[in-house]
Amino acid sequence: MEFFDYFQQVYGDRWPSLLEALKGESRSVELKFGDSLESYFLDDASVFAARSLAVEPGMDVLDMCAAPGGKSLVIASMLKGEGSLQCNDRSPDRRLRLSHVLENSLPAEWRSIISVTGYDGVKFGLHKKESYDRILLDAPCSSDRHVLASPTYLAEWSSKRVKRLSVEQGSLLASAVDALRPGGELIYGTCALAPLENDAVVAKILKKRPSMEFVQIEILPEGADRTEFGVHILPDRTLGSGPIYCAKLRKRSA
User: Could you give phi then psi for residue 30, rounded to 5 degrees?
Assistant: First the structure.
């Protein structure tokens, strides 16, 4: 099957152990911000990606593809009700889930600075140019761990889809770059296995947008892999976490 052959070529001798880990249980942590509030369980690699954005109270932050909302909870916990957080997702169904998570898992004082919007992410660079101090782009991706768990999705998987997604991811990242203020930082992330959706997308934006520079994330989870531009957390070396890729970029000050 094409899926297995494709990733055998990417990961070589590592693929059999990675494949087994992908079939196993993922490792999650509980996010709970009050006794009367709902708990939210999020892959600890996703928590790491959101925390790597280094949000501070008072900042203007965009979570460009926010649903279902776990990373938005992490960002809100760092803002602590100061600044602004725009949680965006263009899917109405996913936006309903996002709103439920925010309303039921966050204290009221933290929610007061949050807006939920449904714009196409590629439009932010045009209509909200240089408007945010921090941006999280958790880009739509191949979601290979979910594909592996579904015989239907597995049968439909193709390398052409990976290429198509990488183009869409590049458009979203370009939009995020244009919406970022000088001196601001963004995290580009996916849950994809393919380098074409990860480092390759970052490499293209660094070439096309000379205002951007790569920032190395210094402290990594145990077992995480460094890539050319980012961090790849894979479950065979992190006791079930991931897959999560994240890369940090900064816009140079004018």
Answer: -90, 125
CA distances, 152 to each of 93, 146, 148, 155, 156 (Å): 22, 11, 9, 5, 6
* pTM given for the model: 0.97
Spot the catalytic one: 65, 87, 141, 191.
Answer: 191
Identity of the residue numbered 90: R
Burial of 187 (0-12, 13-18, 19+ CB in 10 A): buried
Residue labelled with tokens 């380098």: 195
pLDDT in tens, 142-177: 999 999 999 999 999 999 999 999 999 999 999 999
**191 classed as catalytic:** yes
Sign of CA dihedral 126, 129, 132, 134: positive
CA distance 42 to 20: 21
- How far apart are alpha carbons 140 and 163 in whole angstroms? 13
- β pairing state of 230-233 and 244-251: antiparallel
Element spanning 15, H or E: helix 15-23
